[in-house]
Amino acid sequence: MSTVRFLTGITTSGTPHLGNYVGSIRPAVRASKTPGVESFYFLADYHALIKIDEPERIQRSTLEIAASWLAAGLDPSHVTFYRQSDVPEIPELTWFLTCVTGKGVLNRAHAYKASVDKNTAAGVDPDADVTAGLFMYPVLMGADILMFNAHKVPVGRDQIQHIEMARDMAASFNHRYGEHFVPPQAEIEESVATLPGLDGRKMSKSYDNTIPLFSSREQLKKLIAGIKTDSRAPGEPKDTEGSALFQIYQAFASEEETAKLRQAYADGIAWGDAKTILLERIDQEIAPMRAAYEDYMAHPEKVEALLLAGATKARAIATPFMAQLRSAVGLRRLSAAVQNTAAKVEKVALASFKQYREKDGQFYFKLAAADGTVLLQSKAFASGKDAGQAIAQLQREGAATLNALASALEPLDAAGTSTASAAIDALAAAAAEAAKEKAAKAQA
Ligand code: TRP
To answer: To test ligand 1's pocket by mutation, which of 6, 7, 10, 39 has the most ligand atoms within 8 angstroms of CB?
Structure first.
């Protein structure tokens, strides 16, 4: 059975919160345990540089995210878990893809367009404060995906356009250089609801309404106490519809537990009691992971070692694949290039000898370029065999033998001599190459 390859990246620009856990970490860890699935998870730290210019924050976030995924049960011996910047083939591939991506396509990328629209609305230069990094974001992401020929890319809806762009990059590269890339597909988890934050809007760092995944129990209690509710008093029936507290609970609870809380809402549970129920339910799931998380945070060298081992695994794929791609685009050893030029000449541009007999009964030959131009004309030979031997000598020994044959050839001027010499030498090289290949084949 062929395996399906999943790959996803996590930008190292923040501290994982409950929304990340429910929407991405938990489903990914579960999916990584499915038989027949090969998973690649990586810390997209090159992407983080686009948004963040605080070195300490990038480093801190890299550790926190790696520790969170590991604590949540990601098994690095079973999946490939690595840090983007440990795989130098990725930025190299980014350049290759840059060269097959239309600038106009990038102009239409949502994130870039949003910045341009905002600037335009503000009446400033459309590209004000827009880095080329933001503009190139989709190409780096395309390289992440195509480097490992991932089939499926689990992402949020906001990333679908990027996956479509990666497909286009794969197609334009394949069109130019042959079939190297598999077109990737976005994998949208329809069943995973987005988690509301403390204020009821989607839980997101940019709204400052998050609950960190690994806050202490005390911290968790405090934050949950701050979840926005309405002002209904204890004993008054409450709405589950639009209740952030209820939705967060649902993301952790079983169906039975959820039904029970729904009943409690109808029965007029006090908000304080509902919050206690939520705290206990979340803590029940998170507490066992918390110890592992704290251990990783206290021992970054453990995380570092795991990431480096992951990079070794990733590069076992990336390095040979990149070598293949380099060769495909023509970044090759020069020794290979010479052979390749000879082979090309043989195919498309080689001149050829033509032997013929004139009305005078005598034998002649000429050397004609691929386009028919006569480069060399012989004088008359008494027999076809003599003419053939002269041709064979030229093919075998190359232009060096032109002098020896001068008396049998129509004279050439200097330019003519040099054109004919080049053509004869190319023929001789091609013949030698063909002989070598034949010998190699005979040996094999
Ligand atoms: N852009 C993605 C996000 O912000 C992160 C990312 C980077 C990614 N490279 C990727 C996701 C490759 C999937 C595949 O969520």
So the answer is: 10
Strand, coil or helix: 318: helix
Ligand 1 atom, smallest distance to 140 CA: 9
pLDDT tens-digit readout, 22-72: 989 999 999 999 999 999 999 999 999 999 999 999 999 999 999 999 999
Cβ neighbour number for residue 2 with a 10 Å cutoff: 7
Q: Find the angle CA(211)-CA(73)-CA(24) to the nearest 5 degrees.
A: 50
Q: Is the pLDDT of residue 207 over 60?
A: yes
Convert the pLDDT of each residue in 114-159 to its tens digit.
999 999 999 999 999 999 999 999 999 999 999 999 999 998 888 9
Residues with C-beta less than 6 Å from any ligand 1 atom: 7-9, 11, 44, 47, 141, 144-145, 153, 155, 159
The CATH number of 214-289 is 1.10.240.10
Q: What's the token pair of residue 293? A: 């998380």
Given this chain, do its domains 4-191+299-329 and 214-289 carry the same CATH topology?
no
Q: What is the pLDDT of residues 338-391, one digit of tens each?
A: 555 555 544 547 889 999 999 999 999 999 988 888 999 999 999 999 999 999
Tokens 């930025």 belong to 91
Residue extents of the structural domains in the chain: 4-191+299-329, 214-289, 334-443
Annotate 148-193 with DSSP letters as a single string. TT-SEEE--GGGHHHHHHHHHHHHHHHHHH-S--PPPEEE--TT-P
CATH topology of domain 4-191+299-329: Rossmann fold (3.40.50)
pTM: 0.75
Comparing 73 with 397, which gets the higher pLDDT? 73
